[in-house]
Design goal:
Low-confidence stretches: none
Order of helices and strands: EEEEEHHH
Strand content: 25-35%
Shape: globular
Strand order of the largest sheet: 4-3-5
Mean pLDDT: 94
Number of strands: 5
Oligomer: single chain
CATH superfamily: YlxR-like
CATH class: Alpha Beta
Length: 86
Amino acid sequence: MKKVPLRTCVITKEKCEKRLLLRVVRTPEGNVIFDKSGKANGKGAYVKKDKDVILKAQKTKILDNFLEVKVPDIVYEELLKEVASE
């Protein structure tokens, strides 16, 4: 039996399977991107695939603090689009 990777959502602090989370990355150049592949280089933060959680992250700026850089609104829009497409 293969071990299922668990990651912690930075907003809810819940431990979830990696496939139930979305990854946001601050690249070494300082850009913030939504990492669909889960393999981009840089400091990553996981957010639960839930519209309410993403909106809370945007409102409270938790990702800004965690990644130590301003997260652009377009990243939140990409996350919401990803959740809506499922």
